[in-house]
Amino acid sequence: MPSTPSSVKASFTGGSRAELEFLTHAKGVLKGPATWVLHPAILEYLGRADPSFHKGADEAPASLAGRTLSRMLLVLSIIDEEMARIEAGIPRFGVDMGESNLAPEAGIESRAISYTKGCYIGQEVIARIRTYGNVAKALRRLRLADDLKDLPKKGDKLFRDGKEAGYITSAVASPALKANVALGYVRKEANQAGTELILRTADGESVVKVEEAP
Fold first, then answer.
1. Has residue 118 been placed in a domain?
2. Domain that holds residue 78
3. Strands, E, within 87-201: which ranges?
């Protein structure tokens, strides 16, 4: 898993003991009535937004001081949603897909396209794809190496047999799957489940495996 501090102590204002215990049950270990030991996955997320979160295990980051419980619950909710959607292979608009992507590429064809509705913008393109063949690339869930120093960034390239085969769009260290997983676009000749690819990042190369759709 990507390296993060094992825990960071942080104090909160507000929130009942019951709320703290509920949050603890979901995400970590309660140390006293108002001291929180953050889960490493949460630290990884927060650290991307604010490098000051990456501190020693017993050092409380100044940027956490005075955070309310409700604020942290909101942050945790966002983290949970991001983890869950990547685990489930669900793309996010603006992250995993945009105006330049076709719905069949992103795997949302069944809920985003009607083949019986009347005329709409882009219908001819979609009809041709359906009639004549598959898209050139498609979004896939990818199993990353367990020993990554850092998660890959959006746009990091995937290769097969020395040729570029795709790129990463999202990545997360998943406690539920006990694995590093990502979403990314992979060319049709290399996106079958079980196919091994090479991920190249600033930290070097690692093996990536294309997974079955969740």
1. yes
2. 9-87
3. 137-143, 157-160, 163-174, 179-187, 196-201
Distance CA 34, CA 60 (A): 13
Beta strands in 175-203 (DSSP E): 179-187, 196-201
**Measured between alpha carbons, how far is 12 from 38 in angstroms, rounded to an integer?**
12
Coil, helix or strand at residue 31 = coil
Mean pLDDT of 96-102: 91
CA distance 74 to 68: 10
Question: Which of 30-34, 87-91, 112-116, 201-205 bottoms out in mean pLDDT, i.e. has the lowest?
Answer: 30-34
Domain count, the chain: 2
Its pTM stands at 0.66
Nearest-angstrom CA–CA distance, 212 and 171: 17
Res 163 pLDDT > 50: yes
Name the DSSP letter for residue 145.
P
